[in-house]
Specification:
Layout (H helix, E strand, L loop, with lengths): L3 E2 L13 E5 H7 L1 H4 L4 E2 L2 E15 L2 E5 L3 E5 L5 E16 L1 H6 L20 E3 L5 H16 L5 H21 L10 H17 L6 H7 L4 H12 L3 H19 L4 H7 L5 H12 L3 H10 L1
Parallel strand pairs: 1-3
Antiparallel strand pairs: 2-7, 4-5, 4-6, 4-7, 6-8
Helix pairs in contact: 4-5, 9-12
Protein name: Helix-turn-helix domain-containing protein
InterPro entries: AraC-bd, Homeodomain-like_sf, HTH-like, HTH_AraC, RmlC-like_jellyroll, Tscrpt_reg_AraC-type_HTH
Keywords: DNA-binding, Transcription, Transcription regulation
Length: about 290
């Protein structure tokens, strides 16, 4: 099974169990036994690289690491670092509850890098953008490291300000799509949550349309106009992502994986995998582990 890391596994000052900040080099060195194999988190993670090179693999998508690279990870994503040059930078973690507790109307998934709309969990900052962003990261780290009154309130405010600035930079990129309709975006979020909870048991579009109290035709219209995909595409993306995770990060048999994903017929699972991935499950596992 893929390990799931919790904030309390990392050194935290007393009474700060839902937020963490650190110098990147120090964090990686101190937690090398935890972070250099594929793993998940149950918290949000943002990391800024001021130096270094390599590849960051997030759910089988590979992103290059350069000075100025920023990554945004949500709970449940599987990721893996592969460095070719020593990294430097800053990072922070926080739970959904820690951030949202201090705001009445601000939700974490409203920020574009956390919204479920196909946007990448990555942004490369231009040189002129880096000093301000790095300064904000440093302010968060310094506030976290010092023992002052109203510490949690200050950290929430600093996180919020940084997220606002990063959202403005993120949405300025041509390759980061925006969904103008707040109604459609809300529907997509609820669809994603429902698929995540139910994809093992339910694979039909009609089931999810019913859960959202809309017709299957309207659901298809929403996903097509916003993401260029069908609802069925989204359902099977969840299924195949979990299949890939189990294939490469566990020793489970193909039959066991098919059963866990709700397929009664192992051969049908293999056909679905081949049709949508292009290779058999066994070939995918072998290729990844040899590559």
């Amino acid at each position: 099974m893929i390990p799931v890391l919790h904030i309390d596994q990392f050194d935290n000052p007393k009474n700060l169990s839902e937020v963490y900040a650190n110098d990147l080099s120090a964090h990686l060195q101190k937690n090398k036994d935890l972070v250099y194999t594929a793993h998940k988190h149950d918290f949000y993670l943002v990391v800024y690289f001021s130096k270094g090179a390599g590849v960051h693999e997030i759910d089988f998508n590979r992103f290059p690491i350069y000075p100025g690279s920023l990554f945004f990870l949500q709970p449940g994503q599987t990721h893996l670092w592969k460095f070719t040059e020593a990294p430097e930078g800053l990072l922070f973690f926080h739970t959904k509850e820690f951030f949202e507790w201090g705001f009445n109307h601000v939700k974490t998934d409203e920020f574009p890098f956390y919204s479920w709309n196909g946007n990448p969990p990555f942004m490369q900052l231009h040189k002129e953008e880096r000093p301000k962003v790095q300064s904000l990261f440093m302010e968060i780290y310094q506030e976290y490291s010092n023992d002052r009154s109203l510490k949690e309130q200050k950290l929430r405010s600093l996180l919020h300000l940084l997220y606002i600035d990063l959202s403005r930079l993120y949405t300025s990129r041509d390759d980061h799509q925006l969904i103008a309709s707040t109604t459609y975006l809300s529907t997509l979020k609820r669809l994603n949550e429902s698929i995540h909870e139910n994809f093992r048991q339910h694979k039909s579009v009609s089931y999810y349309a019913e859960q959202l109290h809309i017709t299957a035709k309207h659901l298809n219209r929403i996903t097509a106009s916003t993401l260029g995909k069908t609802p069925s595409d989204l359902i099977y993306e969840h299924i195949l992502l979990e299949a890939k995770r189990q294939l490469v990060h566990s020793n489970a048999t193909l039959s066991a994986i098919a059963t866990d994903l709700g397929f009664d017929d192992n051969s049908y699972f293999s056909k679905v995998f081949v049709r949508r991935v292009g290779v058999t499950p066994s070939a995918f596992r072998k290729s990844y582990k040899s590559g």
